[in-house]
Every structure is written in structure tokens, then in C-alpha cells.
Amino acid sequence: xxxxxxxxxxxxxYGEAVEMKYIEQCLPDATVVKTKVNDEPYFAxxxxxxxxxxxxxxxxxxxxIEKLSPYKERIIELIEAGKVFLIIxxxxxxFGDYIETxxxxxxxxxxxxxxxxxxxxxxxxxxxxxxxxxxxKIVGFKAQFSHSYGESEDEGLFENIRGDGLHPGSRFEGIxxxxxxxxxxxxxxxxxxxxxxxxxxxxxxxxxxxxPCENDIRTAYEKRLKEFENPNKEYLG
Amino acid sequence: xxKTPRFxxxxxxxxxxxxxxxxxxxxxxxFPGKLxxxxxxxxxxxxxxxxxxxxxxxxxxxxxxxxxIIDALTDLGYDVLNNRFGSNINAGVASSLISGSTLFxxxxxxxAVFEIDERSSVRIYPYVxxxxxxxxxxxxxxxxxxxxxxxxxxxxxKYVPETTKLVLNADDxxxxxxxxxxxxxxxxIERMETDLPESINIVNDMRLCPVCNSELKYDxxxxxxxxxxxxxxxxxxxxxxxxxxxxxFENLTLTMTRGLESTQFKLINDSIFNAYNLTAVxxxxxxxGIEAKKLSDILSNQKIVETRFSEEKxxxxxxxxxxxxxxxxIACSCVFDYVKRAxxxxxxxxxxxxxxxxxxxxxxxxxxxxxxxEFLGDESIKRIIIGGVRAIDYKVRLEIAGVDESKIICIxxxxxxxxxxxxxxxxxxxxxELYRNDEALAVRDEIKRRLRERTGxxx
Lengths: 237, 459
What we know:
The structure holds 2 protein chains of 2 kinds. Chain A is an alpha/beta fold. Chain A has 6 helices and 13 strands. In chain A, the strands form 2 sheets. Chain A has a 9-stranded mixed beta sheet with strand order 2-1-3-4-13-12-11-8-9, sandwiched between helices. Chain A has a 4-stranded mixed beta sheet with strand order 6-5-7-10, with no helix packed on it. In chain A, helix 1 (about 15-25) links the parallel strand 1 and strand 2 (about 30-35). Chain B starts with a helix and ends in a 5-residue tail after the last helix.
């Protein structure tokens, strides 16, 4: 199995470097390719099973858009082929149509999805998030400058229970098409949500995998779930 | 800006608030300023300021640097207005200016030293224009407020006045790039034996050249992105320090060289952070007009505030408390590294939960995945006792870091953590979050009490 981490030197904000480490621990037999910013992505000419990319600076987003633009058709081909993608934080915006800055400038993104993002650099948005993925309960954190709009409800990833989705008023958080999963949720997502991690591993052909530190991860998940279900807990702030 | 009736009214009420809070023995460092800014939003622009303003900003070390600067100036006979006992956001600076002004808003002092929160640059610099601004460093800090270091770099660069002379860390490739058009001097520390060829930290926010995006080549790395680097593909490189210090941790001295002159200072401990703080302060005060030679005795008498660091040996065991600033992954990583490098075996108590978040909400714990808990996996650390609501999250983090599960003990209540100490190590560390001082120091004192009991009160 081949896993590609896209631009880990650049796309690793908000604890995601350890999300990558955890993915490696979950997939000890996988070949992991860590693509550097000035290298051609491994997926361009090779078969990959799982592509991961984490959150980055706003300048980083522009670099990555430039780097990935030549491979837009190949990315679409991989999504259609059911390859697993996990795209975290503002990396999600790179796959949308454009990112609008505070000054109203529209930075053209890959345009694979019809969404667009609006940045407000002096208005940081922080929240807890509680949602559903099939019957699984999903928990996560949001800390971001932008929201995404123009989503298709057929492609929502997590259904909101509490907390805002892609934007305030949206019913869903994240984007899903086949096995392409993109979400603003931080956590790290896979460490916070053991059932979702197991589901993701099952898509990679690993059924009923025992996760690294599973018992403690599950205890932490259940404790957090109780807190997030508590109506007295503040979500925004 | 003119002193309008609205400004005078705001100043008058703020003065009353200040006096009332002082009479009631309340901390008057935030509310009077907040009140004044609420009543008169451009209050900071209208109140007179001291002629010389020294600003100190940066992710880590600004409080220590500010204290050193204020103490040194006071020792030299200057009467310094400052916000050392208060808030470092716009309301704190306003409170300080209110306390240092007459009823009509005239400044009573000629010099001010303000600690300035990086994120508050937007609200402070349009009105308060520092003559000198020292920036200690810029790192990832609170995910919720500060996002990432490039964001803070952009904010400071955008708002710092063009007339402000900058005193910057040449070994920090983020903060050394603040406002490139401003006049500046750089300080740095000479290469040391402990420097590394590459960063071993999880976080290094300067891996790519900010000019051409090529991978930077580090000449050496001290921690995270602190070190010296150059781009193999363009002319970008670390700036040359105007003030270069040599740290000798064996003899606890710091020798500062500028041009042909060298001056020696005493270091209070072998922490690289204190060496940087001292270097930064000497550079700043020299720029202010005080020769390094005059500072040697004054700065050699520095002390660390006991709530931030304390150590005491009772019998054979040393009890050390050290602030580790929760939600600040770099500060925590540095403390963990310091504990790892310390001689002897250790038991470590972690009290890092955020008090405010966990009371009303649920703490965003992403930051613990940016901190190098891996350092606590060192074999010299026999036990890690975690206290607080988020203990299980820290346990997961430590396990992912490779720490043996059998070494980790989770305890819900911070005050119960001394029960898990086994007294079988040379040192007991209490590493605590800034806002957990009272609880942490109570834990530390309880450990000391039990230790004295165990040694029969002879120690």
C-alpha cells in the first residue's frame, strides 16, 4: 500500500504533523511518500492508495494551488477511481473554485468542487463541532479564518448536530465525493475519532484493525463526546 | 490628536475607576483602560505619551525581557512607566498611560516600557509609536488567537510604525523579517556545541525559503526554527547579528561582543532561553544609550520570578517547579527538552489544562500535537503524572510519542497528583500552565511537605 503526504513541510499546522505520524502508526506496512514542495507529486505518475494533506498558511495555499494545478485532471481521475483522500483544514479550499481575500481578490483554486472560500483575516473563527457520519458521532475543533460556500448537499461529509458546518447556516461540514474526504475539522481528526479512523482503514482494505493506543483513544473520545453533548458547553469562542 | 471633551470625560472616569480599584486593593491594570477605550475609542491616540517608548513583543520571553529592562532602567535612576503588573493588550497599555498622566492627559514620565501582545499590534501601534521595539522571537502560539507565526509576522509588519527602530533576533528567521523597511539591529548567539544540523522538533516553521520556496539549508539549528540558515537557490539567508553573544553554560557566563568591545554577564541558569533574553535586553538597552559595561553588574543580579521557576533540594531529592505555558507548544517543548537534558532521574507532574476553556467549554487540544512530548520519553524520566480534566488526552499524546504506557498515571484532580509520586527519582518536576500557578505551587509545596516528612524534617 502506498500513502502520499502532500507537502508535509508546508501543510502541517495545528497538530497535523502528528496526525501524519499516527497514520504511519496505523499503517505500519505501508510505503509512505512525503512529497516536497518542489517535487512532482508521486501520484502524478504512480498508483497511490491514500493521499493526505494538512492545513497551511494562506501563502502556503497559494503555493500549493500553483503546484497542484498541473495535476488537476489526474486528481479528478484518482477521486473517480475511489482512491482515499484525507484533506484537513484550509487545504479543503484548494480543491474548490476560488478563495476570496479580505481585499476581494479571487485566488483561483483547482476548481474540482464548486465551493468557494471567503477569508476574513481579522476575524478568527473558533468553535467545537459535533456531527454525524452515518451512525458515527464525530467530534472536532475549528480554528480558521475562512468558511466555504456554494456546497452541494449531495457532497456533504458530516451532518451537523451542533456547531457550524462549512459555513454558518450550512447543514454539513466538509466535502465528500467517493472516498475523497475534506474537512475543516482539527483534532487531529483521526486521533479524536477512532470509529472514523477504522472506517477509513477499511476503505484501504484493512478490516477490524486494532488502532494504536486504541483503549485510551476511545476513553478520550467518549469523555469528549459527553462534553460535546452537554447543552451547557459553549461551542463558539 | 486633540483632547476632546469626550476624551477628557473618559480619562476622568478611568482615573476614578483606577483610584477606586486601588483603594479596594483590586488589580487596576485592565478595567480603567478598557473603560476609557469604550467611552472614547481613539483614547490611546489622544492621551499624551512619554517621550521615549520601549515596546517588547514576541511569542516567548517578552515578560522576562520587560522585567529586566524595567529593573535595569530603574537601577540606573530612570523613572519608568510600565505595564509589568498588568495586561499587555490595548486596555493594559491604556491603563498604564492613565496612571502615568495628569487629570488633563499630560504624561508625567519621560520613559515607558510596554510589553505588547503581538496580536494587539493592530489596536496599539496606530496610536502608541514605540521608539524601540524588541521582538524576542515568533513561533506558533495559541491556535485560536494567533493561528500561525506568519500571520503574526504580517500583522506586526503591517502595523509597526515606520519610525520605530527594531531590535530583532538574527537567529530567528521569522521575526528577523519584521517590517523590512524599518531601521534595525540584530542580536544573536554564537554557534554552540549542542547545536544540531537539523531540527529535531515536530514544528519548524522555516523549512522553506520565503523568497523562492526552495528548502532552506540550515548551518545549525538550536531549537525549532532558531538557528542559522541560507537558501541554496537564492540570496536569502539569516541576517548578520550586530550584537553577538557567546554563552558558556559551564561557567554560567554570557559574553556580548559589539564591534571590538566585549562585556561579560552572569547567567542565572543554563537555559538557552535566558541567554537569548539577556542578549536581547543588552542589545535593546545599548540602543537606548546605555553602554553594555554599565549593565553588566545590574543585569547579573537578575532573578526569575518564583512563580515561573523554583528549585529546592530536600534530602536527596530536588523539587523543581517550572511554568510551561499551556496552549503554547514551543514553550512546552522547550521545557520538556530542558527536563530531558537535566542530569539524574526524574518524576514529572504535568498540570497543563486550560482553566478557562475547560470550565465553560472543552479545550481545543490540537496544540498538544505541536508540542514535543517525545522528549518526555527519555529513559531518565521514570514517571509522568498528569493531573486535570484533559489527563487522558495527554496520555494519548504521550503514547503516540512512544512513551511507555506503564510510566503514565492520570489523575482527575490536580491537587491529588502528589499521591502518585513514588519518591524514587533524583528530581521531581512540577510543570504547569501559566494560569495554574496557585494550584501548581500548592502541589509543589505539598510535595515538599511530604518530602520533609519523609526525611524526618531534617532537610
